[in-house]
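Progress against Task 2.4 (sequence-to-structure conversion) is shown through the following example record, which the project officer requested during the mid-term review.
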Amino acid sequence: MTPEQKLRLVAFGLLVVLLVGTVGFMYLEEMSPVDSLYMTVITLSTVGFGEVNPLHSEGRTFVMFLIIFGVGLAGYTATVVGQMVLEGQIREMLGRRKMDSRIRKMTGHYIIAGYGRVGRHVTSEFQRRGVSFVVLERNDDAIAQLVDEHVPFVQGDSTDEDTLRSAGIESASTLISTLPDEAQNVYLTLTARDMNKKLKIIARADMEGGEKKLMRAGANHVVTPHILGGMRMAMASLRPNVVDFMQMTSLGEGGLSIEELIIPANCRLSGKTLVESKIKQDYGVTIIGIKQKGKQMIIAPEPDTVLSECDILVLIGPLDSLERLGKSLN
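Structure tokens generated for the chain above:
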């Protein structure tokens, strides 16, 4: 039984005892509701203020049983509260409420379904980048780890609609499904797509045929970890320096990083060529790709490529320079 359930049980027991005591005094002693409630409260609290009216033998017998139940309830309450204080459960419960409130206020955030091997790496990267996210997990051991690491989470089945609502699926921007079971990933994708038509869904597939199923279910991108792992191992044996460079830039090591930026409306870069934008000269970063709306990614764009609103720029350069460029576009 959870701490909240124990507290609810104590509160329910107190209400039942108060109700039974009030009704008992009204019936046995013919007192008014207010006097009956007053007698119940002073009896349970044992303050000894005295009786409103002299009690009959039935009333005195009723009071004895009421005191016995009241003392028992008080003892159970003290045990529950004492245990929660000693085990830190009250602090944990208050922390859980604070976290729930924080999650309810999230908008445009990321939802990570599953805290397994893949989910942990995604979480770690989001924490490093300061991204707003929440994790969905039901395993108790994984939940304990999330608590220790102060990661926002919702405990429950990731495919359950109530769990997804608790994570703010309607206001989220992206769902990352890292569940180990491919069938669950498909079902989660279907459910999430039905709940949020604009949601960007990135799903994990363990079998090559699973990619088509997930795309039909509504996923925007499908990642197959073992295929990517195999390709990386092959590249590490054939082009080890290239792999080292890719790893360093993807993790932000060595002061370099790869980033993508969107050209907003009314931006000073709109309508200019790459040469005219002077991004390389002013910020020391290099545009290695441009994704124009409705078109394929342009790799290594020519200097005379014209920039437009909503273009997505893929850049490589020092972290601080990328941040300065990002701020200048807003």
